[in-house]
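Case study B.
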Amino acid sequence: MAAASPSVFLLMVNGQVESAQFPEHDDLYCKYCFVYGQDWAPTAGLEEGISQITSKSLDARRALVWNFPIDVTFKSTNPYGWPQIVLSVYGPDVFGNDVVRGYGAVHVPFSPGRHKRTVPMFVPESTSKLQKFTSWFMGRRPEYTDPKVVAQGEGREVTRVRSQGFVTLLFNVVTKDMKKLGYDTGPPDTQGVSGPSPPQGLPT
Amino acid sequence: MNSNRRRRFHLWAMAEVHVIGQIMGATGFSESSLFCKWGVHTGAAWKLLSGVREGQTQVDTPQIGDMAYWSHPIDLHFATKGLQGWPRLHLQVWSQDSFGRCQLEGYGFCHVPSSPGTHQLDCPTWRPLGSWREQLARAFVGGGPQLLHGDAIYSGADRYRLHTAAGGTVHLELGLLLRHFDRYGVEC
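Model:
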């Protein structure tokens, strides 16, 4: 009975935080973490990480490259609460303080195969011009106390944000036992590229 | 634990649909600080097991390009006894100015895709035009006519009364996961 029908399926994700496009900022590092529902649990790999600090290349591309590995496996009984990867990008401001340059989140793709995702990054905006100046001067910009709120839909009605960059991620996804449990995830789209394409003029 | 077992026994008879994705953003609107109110409407045979049926995104002011990005996550788990009333996502795009006033920029709806996998959706929007007086007032002072009842957004019943103009486009990426549909001989 136990061998015949599994009750748990596995999701294995590996890949990298490849690169970023932030026209106005330089010397950035990135933190990632996974947010998932109650029915999910990580079984192997790392749930979070901090990348190196990267500067824009000196050639014409002005590319910001991290090439930072991601490798995690989840198990679950229910696709509700499918894992999302939450990214936070930080960099120094004019005075040398570490300030947030963008938050973003995207669901891990669920069809097996190779996927490229471009995630738009946004920062919370100050409520008034005075607060904007004070936060610029003191180096304490508005930021989220817990970056995981970026992965939730509730409570966003009152926030004002500014989108100012993109991060490109590459995923390889493998699932186990989803078909046996009756789930149909659709055709595996190999080399699937999705997400917004950055406006012209920025390196892809 | 007991209620889980009871719920699973009940689910044995039903097919399940998971809608997992994001409302990515919008392009083509004349204003730049935009937010979106969204909701999902289903027929009587559908039951929402987990997830929030409606919500509102953050207000985004884009610094690069003209696309406003919301990246608002959608994660819905439905159980269904029939195909009628397939879920429809309805949207209202509003703009917010520096004084905090909100103005309607467009209504739109799109059906949740019916084939499993990840889909890129572009949902066109429209806004009601009023009389020439109302249009003039909207150009100078803002405001403008709005629908009294939200169901005209996703239903065709009373649309013939409206005269509308096009708004911008809302971009969504929705992934669909189906369960047990093959048991009932449904092809999608």
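Strands of chain B lie at 15-27, 34-41, 46-50, 54-56, 59-62, 68-80, 88-96, 102-111, 117-128, 164-179. The remaining cases will be described in the next quarterly update.
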